[in-house]
Amino acid sequence: MNNLAIAIGVGFIYYLAYIEMHWAQNFFKEAIVIGAAIGLIMGDFKMGIIMGGNFQLLYIAGVMAPGGNLSIDSQLACCVAIPIAIATGMDVEAAMVLSIPFGLLGVFLDNFRRTVMGYWTRKADKHAAEGNVNAILFDGIGGPLIFNVFLRWIPVALIVYLGADAANAIVEMLPVWLTNGFKVAGGMLPATGLAMILVMLNKQFLLIYYILAVILTQMRSMPIVVAALFAFVMAALHIMFTKSDNAAAES
To answer: Is there a contact between 171 and 21 (Cβ–Cβ < 8 Å)?
Structure first.
């Protein structure tokens, strides 16, 4: 598949992630799904899954939107960084570092969308007063869908189409010490995402198991996904034993 077709496909994936239709939006919100889809489009499904799985850990806390406010646009981060990383042969860790600025940029993009969508709300109120059902449907569905083509699909397609060659040139220019720094920082990011989830859930007492898993990864070179599963099992056992102790105390 040529670069233009890949760029259009990746842009469409990002478009589906914010299409405001649950059958697609909930599915393409997940980084691992985005990674798999991009890998399929680019002919490297395995690398797409690997990238998506690591990005899922990184942005596991960012998928939450307290009060409906987007904390980070993980979908934009994935749709820009993953195809560029696959095209240039960039390491997963470096790709995760590359994705963060785009994730933050997506927050401003979403705020702009909210501002513009106010126009369609006012139009819908006007057409509701007039009893114009077809116009209301366009205000609520058609107009926003068309607007998102220009806000999300086309910009991401352009970034992916123009960015691969530019990113490749930049990567080749980077000194070894900087790329190694990106790898180290990127390796820490998934762990940070998991720790943020524990803090947000107000379960700080589980952090001791998380720290144990981090120590094991350093001692045994355990992959971060395996460490996360180990921490999950330990936390589950802790909860089970805690419930047993509470039940015994009550009886």
So the answer is: no
List, run by run, the mean pLDDT of 10-residue segments along the chain (251 residues).
88 88 76 92 91 81 49 84 88 80 78 82 88 88 89 89 66 65 58 63 66 67 70 79 65 57
**Cβ–Cβ contacts within 10 Å for residue 233, how many?**
12
Q: How far apart, in whole angstroms, are the C-alpha atoms of residue 139 and residue 121?
A: 7
Structure tokens at 246: 């509470």
Of 192, 196, 172, 227, nearest to 96 by C-alpha is 192
Contacts of 51 (CB under 8 A, 6+ apart): 35, 38, 39, 78, 82, 85, 86, 92, 95
Distances (CA, A) of 124 to 91, 116, 120, 249: 48, 14, 6, 59
Q: What is the pTM of this model?
A: 0.67
